[in-house]
Amino acid sequence: MDEEELFDEEPPYTCDPHHNCIDKFIVCQEELMGLFAICPACCERSDSSIVQQEGTFVKIKQVCASCGYHRFWQNQPMLHRNMPTCNLLLSGAIHFTGCLATQTLRMLTLFGLQCISASSFFRHQRRYTIPVIVQAE
Ligand SMILES: [Zn+2]
């Protein structure tokens, strides 16, 4: 498999329990998109756009009109059922610290951070974080 084929594929889905321990960084959209402005294959200007955004998850497609190079990039791995890892980690962090979800999410939204909705938080709570607590008892 050559390099072009590698980048052509969708990123693999992974399930790593250590993602909670990995540092995360806040990145402004303009700075992020700047990383995809130049084609890594021929160094010409390339087009890039956000093709999917779901809570904390963002997926970018980069296409070079000059040489045909293209790739997908996403800011985090997926868990099972195509759930972005950081969406569930954010729900867990809110729940396990005892913060009020609606206030926390309102604060993050005011800051401009792309994050999960309150309904996503309560769904995560019902399906994942509460069962984890129940199992631990
Ligand atoms: Zn190119």
Output the number of helix runs.
5
Report the β-strand fraction as a percent range. Answer: 5-15%
What's the order of the H and E elements?
HHEEEHHH
Q: Which ligands occur here?
A: zinc ion
Radius of gyration, CA atoms, in whole angstroms: 18 Å
Total DSSP E strands:
3
What level of helicity do the residues show?
40-55%
- Total separate domains: 1
**In angstroms, what separates the terminal alpha carbons?**
48 Å
Uncertain stretches: 1-7
Biggest β-sheet strands, sense, barrel:
3 strands, antiparallel
Shape: elongated
Task: Return the average pLDDT rounded to an integer.
Answer: 88
Q: What class do helices, strands and sheet pairing give?
A: alpha+beta
- As laid out across the biggest beta sheet, the strand order is 1-2-3
What does this structure look like?
This protein has 137 residues and is α+β, with helices and mostly antiparallel strands. It has one domain. The chain is built from 5 helices and 3 strands, in the order H-H-E-E-E-H-H-H. It has helices at 3-8, 29-34, 85-97, 101-111, 118-136, and strands spanning 47-54, 57-63, 70-74. Helix 3 crosses helix 5. The longest helix is centred in the C-terminal third of the chain and has 19 residues, at 118-136. It is elongated and about 60 Å long. The termini are far apart.
